[in-house]
Design brief:
Layout (H helix, E strand, L loop, with lengths): L14 H16 L23 H8 L11 E8 L3 E7 L8 E8 H7 L4 E8 L13 E6 L2 E7 L6 H9 L6 E5 L4 H7 L2 E14 L2 E6 L10 E8 L2
Parallel strand pairs: 4-10
Antiparallel strand pairs: 1-2, 1-8, 2-3, 4-5, 5-6, 7-8, 8-9, 9-10
InterPro entries: MIZ1-like_pln
Protein name: Protein MIZU-KUSSEI 1
Pfam families: DUF617
Length: 234
């Protein structure tokens, strides 16, 4: 296998991927070091958090206009506290995701990974066909902060839980919190259904490499950085 990795902790020979990582390095050098921990979820304390009750009823009860005037990509990370975390990418929060995958890591493990100031989630595809776009590949090796967690398969069709999350958050541009589950039984077994949603800048290094860099909310000082890389090995 060629020595191409999605993590800056490994040697790389892929110029496109290296340029994407340079992009994150430049962003990190410009950002003052955070004085306290808490992970990427800490910056969203300035934003409303959705929970069951009046706020959720108000959200689902009437159509909401998009809160963003730009064309930033919407990324949502969600999952039950005792389950696995899923990743969804939407070009518009009112449309179905263009990419959904359940990552091979539990929500608790992912939250520990996001406690650092810089989080890099990397997905690698070993498919050698170039007829598809990068995000159209199905089988992905998943790395987080340089550690490999296993393989996952991109969803071809959304599960009931995933549809529930997308519908519940259709009027939300960014934020973090807890959503009501589909049933009380699931909540009792798997815990609360948590989510984090944010805008991401999309950067295309080549036809085989794309990256998404989180745009910090307005008012978040010294916020953490989250970058997601998609690389098709050649």
């Amino acid at each position: 296998m060629p020595s191409v990795y999605c993590s800056p902790f490994h040697q790389m020979e892929n110029p496109a991927l290296f340029s994407l990582l340079q992009h994150t390095t430049t962003r990190s050098e410009k950002r003052p070091k955070s004085g306290s921990g808490g992970g990427i979820f800490r910056m969203f304390k300035l934003l409303p958090m959705l929970t069951s009750g009046c706020k959720m009823v108000a959200l689902l009860g009437r159509p909401r206009k998009p809160q963003l005037a730009d064309h930033a990509t919407t990324v949502t990370l969600f999952g039950y506290r005792r389950g696995r975390v899923s990743l969804a990418i939407q070009e518009d929060p009112h449309r179905l995701p263009v990419f959904v995958i359940e990552l091979p890591m539990s929500s608790s493990v992912f939250q520990k990974e996001t406690a650092s100031d810089i989080v890099r989630l990397s997905l690698e595809s070993e498919t050698r066909s170039h007829k598809k776009k990068v995000l159209e590949e199905f089988v992905w090796g998943v790395y987080c902060n340089g550690r490999k967690y296993g393989y996952s398969i991109r969803r071809k069709h959304l599960t009931d839980d995933e549809v529930h999350v997308m519908q519940s958050l259709r009027g939300v541009s960014m934020g973090a919190g807890v959503l009501p589950g589909l049933s009380e039984k699931e909540a009792a077994v798997d815990g609360e259904l948590t989510y984090m949603r944010a805008r991401f800048e999309r950067v295309a290094g080549s036809k085989d490499c794309e990256a998404f860099h989180m745009i910090n909310p307005d008012g978040a000082q010294n916020g953490q950085e989250l970058s997601i890389f998609f690389v098709r090995l050649r």
